[in-house]
Design goal:
CATH superfamily of the largest domain: Aldehyde Dehydrogenase, Chain A, domain 1
Distance between the termini: 78 Å
Bound molecules: nicotinamide-adenine-dinucleotide
Strand content: 15-25%
Radius of gyration: 25 Å
Strand order of the largest sheet: 15-16-17-14-13-19-20
């Protein structure tokens, strides 16, 4: 049984493993991951602080070169990374390549750091007085990440945090932690000084120590809403800057004028891709007016063609869920649905008897507030359909939901789409785009219970989060005040 090492001071550090890491496609134990004691956490934080004291003074070109090098190495190791992600997470190789590509986008954005870190300058704000501003690194950043994007979310954080001169301690999900160690090794190969990026494995108690550690200055978190709220409250109370992204319940509104084949295809991809384990997955299709019956039929027909299988098997549309417990929890929403007046149109739960943590695609009709299938973040291959009379009812449904991560509208009407984008209390909106994850030059973040703190992740808000502003007001003695004759006119 292998144990996944930490990555500290630029090296793998072996430790006894205690938490299981499975291959979800076979249900077998792959390896174990350690949970460090408090002394080890202290040591990792002090190594990061020590490294930061030099890294903060690194030149912009030095950082840019390292990030360009990282990009090159990630591209050339893409197959290795995808295989590792699929083996521990279960998603298809195509999905694993896709998440790596979205992560690399953030490295590319960070490569523009000399532009992102430009300050302002105002000349002659008073006689002989100039003002300029700079943005300096915050210090040591704890990056705490979820299981569902084991390389993309660490890169959302690390690329911009390192570019802006911070040290990063990544605490990856304990369920698929291997790829973060390889990220550390590639950063070292690209020239990052030892200690500037560390991987510290562990569980809730490890995170708890980081949140209250005096050597940690900022916390970037992505995960479920209850944990995000706890992380935000605890780290804020310790005086740290925090951004904590939480869970989601994303609605896709289909208006009466939409192309229903396009909408059904989108619902399939956004509802079942990566087994629904995406924070931007569509969870509820909101059928407006008379489209519901036709739309449900089109979605159900397409579901019958989906192939569920190991992520490394050619032809699989989606793979297993992350653990047996999570698979059983997801199945329970489908089993309970009829007791709450929700119709099970397609039931994929019979796949749960297969080896591995598989669950087939499920479709629930007539979900609505007050049913557990609507009120909970299911995070699996279960798509709900909510039927509403009109546009206003669709918007009211979305705005009453406690989550506000992403949403989409399918329509041919530009005005309706434009109004929708303004009416909904949601952070990321798609118009005929079911998963509107912003490109790396914009920032990613939800509203309401999908984000605690004000700073969205990556892009310009990421640069702002990882830096603090300094404003310098300068006055040099006027030549007439100078004691020394410099040989230029004393008045100007
Ligand atoms: P999770 O909240 O269980 O775990 C996330 C991280 O927090 C892990 O590193 C874990 O070790 C740590 N953790 C778990 N319990 C903790 C506790 N009590 N105290 C401190 N730390 C704790 O999330 P997950 O199951 O790994 O990921 C799935 C969740 O993440 C879903 O809710 C999904 O919507 C959300 N997510 C959100 C986004 C977003 O951008 N908003 C992106 C990806 C995933």
């Amino acid at each position: 049984m292998t144990t996944i090492p930490h990555f500290v001071r630029g090296q793998r550090v072996a430790a006894d493993g205690s938490l299981p890491v499975f291959n979800p496609a076979t249900g077998t134990l792959r390896s174990k991951v350690p949970v460090p004691d408090a002394a080890f956490v202290d040591d990792v934080v002090s190594s990061a602080r020590e490294a930061w004291n030099s890294w903060r003074y690194s030149t912009l070109s030095q950082r840019t070169n390292i990030l360009f090098g990282l990009r090159h190495l990630l591209v050339s190791h893409a197959d290795e990374f995808a295989a590792l992600i699929t083996a521990e997470h279960g998603k298809t190789l195509a999905d694993a390549h896709g998440e790596l590509a979205r992560g690399i986008e953030n490295v590319e954005y960070a490569c523009g750091l000399s532009e992102h870190l430009k300050g302002d300058f105002s000349s002659q704000v008073a006689d002989g007085v100039d003002v300029h501003s700079v943005r300096e690194p915050v210090g040591v950043v704890a990056a705490i990440t979820p299981f569902n994007f084991p390389i993309m979310v660490p890169l959302w954080m690390a690329a911009n945090a390192l570019a802006t001169g911070n040290a990063v301690i990544l605490k990856p999900s304990e369920r698929d932690p291997s790829v973060s160690v390889r990220l550390g090794e590639l950063l070292s190969e690209a020239g990052l000084p030892a200690g500037v990026f560390s991987v510290l494995h562990g569980n809730a108690s490890t995170v708890g120590q980081l949140l209250e550690h005096s050597g940690v200055d900022a916390v970037s978190f992505v995960g479920s809403t209850p944990v995000a709220r706890h992380v935000f409250d605890t780290a804020s109370a310790s005086g740290k800057r925090v951004q904590a992204l939480g869970g989601a319940k994303n609605h896709m509104v289909v208006l009466g004028d939409a192309d229903l084949d396009v909408a059904a295809d989108a619902a399939i991809n956004a509802g079942f891709g990566s087994a629904g384990e995406r924070c931007m997955a569509i969870s509820v299709v909101v059928a407006v007016g008379g489209v519901a019956d036709t739309l449900v039929e089109k979605i159900a027909t397409r579901m019958d063609a989906l192939r569920v299988g190991p992520g490394d098997q050619p032809g699989s549309d989606f793979g297993p869920l992350i653990t047996a417990e999570h698979r059983d929890r997801v199945a329970s929403f489908v089993h309970n649905a009829p007791t709450e007046g929700v119709t099970v149109v397609r039931d994929g739960t019979n796949l749960s008897s297969r080896e591995g943590f598989f669950l087939g695609p499920c479709l629930l009709d007539n979900v609505r507030p007050g049913t557990t299938a609507y009120d909970s973040e299911i995070f699996g291959p279960v798509l709900g359909v909510a039927r509403v009379e009109d546009y206003d009812e669709a918007v009211a449904l979305i705005n009453a939901n406690p989550y506000g991560n992403g949403t989409a509208i399918f329509t041919r009407d530009g005005n309706a789409a434009r109004r929708f984008a303004r009416d909904v209390s949601v952070g990321m909106i798609g118009v005929n785009v079911p998963i509107p994850v912003p490109v790396a030059s914009y920032s990613f973040g939800g509203w309401k219970d999908s984000l605690f703190g004000h700073a969205h992740m990556y892009g310009p808000e990421g640069i702002a989060f990882y830096t603090r502003a300094k404003v310098i007001t300068t006055r040099w003695p006027q030549p007439s005040e100078s004691q020394i004759d410099l040989g230029f006119p004393r008045t100007r």
